[in-house]
Amino acid sequence: MRHPKLCAFLLCLGLTQIGTADLIAFWDFNEEPVTNPLVNTPLTFSPNAGSQQTAELSMVLVDTASTTTFGIRAEGTTVNDLVNDPQEAGNSFAFSRGFRSRNATATISFDASSITLPVEMSFAINRIATQAVDQYQASYSTDGGDTFSDLGSAVDITQGSWNLHTINFGTALNGASDARVRLTFLGGTANWSDDHRTNIDNIALTAIPEPGTLALVGIALGSLLLFRRRS
After folding, report:
1. Each residue's pLDDT tens digit, 17-26
2. Domain locations in the chain?
3. Distance between CA atoms of 112 and 174, rounded to whole angstroms?
4. Which residues of the chain register pLDDT less than 70?
5. Cα(39)–Cα(93) distance, rounded to whole angstroms?
6. CA dist 37 to 70, 92, 231, Å?
7. pTM of the predicted model, to two decimals?
8. For 176-231, what is each residue's pLDDT tens digit?
């Protein structure tokens, strides 16, 4: 039976509705054909999973002098595989040829008009060689990509192993019907070798509960147990 004092306590904490994480969109490239040879034309991908199947992931080069600069490779990972059970390494997306991949962008477009939780982007990334692009700058837009604002400073990409990277955009995108988050790749010194590449895989966009909300949940549950013991 619901106890009136306990209900009042929970209402004071604002716990009548507890937010849960929502996987907005997820890309693992496993269903995409391997690009052989690689290309320099913009590529767009629909999500493999998530609540917004209308979201899009767009990969674009700035320097298109090289005709074989990026595409799908059979070099994936299970790092940040949030969907497959069992997890699959599969494919990944590769920015190849170092210098030619400089300033290439990976942009996610989605509808944040009804999102009220902080938005987080996570992905696995691996710099294959020293001359590959070695940093990325995260940015976001709430006006359909007309203007982008940088989030913090450029982030280093570790060479030689897959690593999980997480970017929290907070609530900056909330309410935007044409929201965008972008990674711009920097560095890179090699012009022509396919081996000088940086791969990215298992890109996830998630709406997550506020840490403060989770803390209040813990307080409420602890108080419930203490209340029951005293009853």
Report:
1. 344 789 999 9
2. 35-209
3. 5
4. 1-19, 192-194, 211-231
5. 12
6. 9, 15, 71
7. 0.84
8. 999 999 999 999 887 766 678 899 999 999 999 976 544 444 444 444 444 445 55
Q: Which one-letter amino acid corresponds to residue 65?
A: A
Structure tokens at 178: 């044409």
Task: Using alpha carbons only, give the angle 119, 122, 124 rounded to the nearest 5 degrees.
Answer: 170
Which class would CATH give 35-209? mainly beta
E strands present in the chain: 22-27, 43-45, 56-60, 70-73, 92-95, 105-110, 119-127, 133-141, 149-150, 155-156, 163-170, 179-187, 198-207
Alpha-carbon gap, residue 134 to 170, rounded angstroms = 25
Contacts of 172 (CB under 8 A, 6+ apart): 119, 140, 142, 149
